[in-house]
Amino acid sequence: MSQFGGQRTKSYCNFEGANTAGKETDDIEKFNHWSLSYENSWWQWFLFDRLQRRVLNMAKKGTAPNTVLDVGCGTGRLLRKARKYWPEAQLIGVDPASGMIESARRLTPDAKFYVGQAESLPLPDAKVDLAFSTASFHHWQDQEKGLREIKRVLQVGGLLFLADFWLPFGLSKVTHYFQSNNPSAIRETFWRVGFRVRDQRKLWTLWQVVTVGERC
Ligand SMILES: C[S@@+](CC[C@H](N)C(=O)[O-])C[C@H]1O[C@@H](n2cnc3c(N)ncnc32)[C@H](O)[C@@H]1O
Predict the structure, then answer these.
(1) Cα angle at 75 between 61 and 31, to 5 degrees?
(2) What is the pLDDT of residues 127-170, one digit of tens each?
(3) Closest C-alpha among 74, 47, 55 to residue 213
(4) What is the pTM of this model?
(5) Would the pLDDT of 113 be above 70?
(6) pLDDT band for position 27 (50/70/90)?
(7) For residues 79 and 52, is the Cβ–Cβ distance under 8 A?
């Protein structure tokens, strides 16, 4: 991704695959900076909004959640769309970038937002019926830990819709960010942490893979 308020630093061009704490801090700073223009970014119509609509459409069939969580929620756009599907549900968003959360709170007053990371969610056990994460997974410092946390906050039988970049034809090798995002590796991590994989779809035109896990 290249638009972060026009800034591009070495962590976005790191071909060595290093996964350091410094990278995480850089990421959060970039997202704080981007939060100022995020709502008007062309990435919204080009990718993020389309992706959110696709996963919400997948999720709406047969679900009537009381509580909906978005991990790496940015400015809360997915949750604002979710409100149309589930008008009564409690909506919760978590994101480590405080700038994103500030905008989310302003734009989505009927939802609760917390500054926090996937790897340590500021929520009690078994609180959530339906969880989403779109275009965020490749930023997580410890993806398995993040998935374990989502499992912890989901009720038994609750569903997670995780969508993230998937670059076919070995293209993921051009950046360390997407190397762990191959569909079979994601399925294996889901199984390892205790999700039953209910579905996995490649959205070719959006270069995304959506994995649906049920908390066992
Ligand atoms: C490209 S944005 C996508 C935001 C939103 N899901 C959307 O579709 O508009 C990625 C988001 O992931 C967040 N993020 C980065 N590291 C994270 C982590 N460890 N846990 C949860 N979210 C993280 C960033 O702060 C950023 O808001």
Answers:
(1) 125
(2) 999 999 999 999 999 999 999 999 999 999 999 999 998 877 66
(3) 55
(4) 0.89
(5) yes
(6) confident
(7) no
Question: Burial level of 201, CB count in 10 A (0-12/13-18/19+)?
Answer: middle
Q: Bigger pLDDT: 2 or 68?
A: 68
Q: CA-CA distances (angstroms) from residue 95 to 41, 57, 68, 71, 115?
A: 18, 23, 15, 6, 5
Two tokens at 196? 């039953």
For the chain, which domains are there?
10-215 (3.40.50.150)
pLDDT, average across residues 79-83:
98
The pLDDT mean for the chain works out to 87
- From 20, 44, 95, the mutation candidate for ligand 1 (largest count of ligand atoms within 8 A of CB) is 95
Give residues (CB < 6 A) around ligand 1. Answer: 27-28, 31, 48, 52, 71-74, 77-78, 95-97, 100, 117-119, 134-136, 139-141
Identify the residue whose tokens are 């223009």: 37
The residue type at 162: L
Supply φ then ψ for residue 207, to 5 degrees: 55, 45
Q: Name which residue sits closest to atom 14 of ligand 1, judged by CA.
A: 72
Residue 16 has pLDDT above 90, yes or no: no
Q: Can you tell me which atom of ligand 1 is nearest the CA of 28?
A: 25
Work out the end-to-end distance of the chain between its first and last CA atoms, rounded to an integer number of angstroms: 34
